[in-house]
Amino acid sequence: MKLLGFVAAALVIAAPAAAKEITVKMLNKGKEGAMVFEPGFIKAAPGDTVKFVAANPGHNAQTIPGLLPAGEAEQKGAMGKDFVLKVGKPGLYGIKCLPHFSMGMVALVQVGNGPSSNLAAAKAVKLSPLATKRMTAYLAQAK
User: Fold this and answer.
1) How far does the signal peptide extend, from start to end residue (predicted)?
2) Which residues contact 102 (CB under 8 A, 6 or more apart)?
3) Is 1 annotated as a binding residue?
């Protein structure tokens, strides 16, 4: 009986932490102004999911080419629909709303504890002026 209890306790201790779901709203107006993801900077762990919720119509969420960890495929959500980003590899994942990208509607997901291996590449990605302003602030938070 004691052995059975020991085995059960060992399994609980050895079980990996459960992945979590993080919610991000796609908004016409938020704390940072017009056309924003809220929050705009997200910290996640490998295996987590980041759910972008279409709180207002007319938005989508998709990854930004060149602003992904090496080997990660680009992902794209449909217009006006929720989008779930499954994060596997540690690193930085850039997100944009395609119709409002030039208005600065971007987000940054940092997966794992920094420093992120693709930080230099992320800083080199060309964005619109308003997107650059927001993304620069998010990249400063990625440690």
Assistant:
1) 1-19
2) 128, 130, 131
3) no
Q: Rounded distance, CA 123 to CA 136, Å?
A: 8
Can you identify the CATH homologous superfamily of domain 19-141?
Answer: Cupredoxins -  blue copper proteins (2.60.40.420)
Count of all residues that appear for the chain in the document: 143
> What end-to-end distance do the CA atoms of the chain give, in Å?
48
35 appears as a binding residue in the annotation: no
Closest CA to 54 of 28, 76, 17: 28
The span from the CA of 21 to the CA of 67, in Å, is 21
Whether 4 has a pLDDT exceeding 60, the answer reads no
The pTM (predicted TM-score) of the whole model is: 0.86
Edge-to-edge order in the sheet of strand 41-44: 41-44, 106-111, 91-96, 62-63
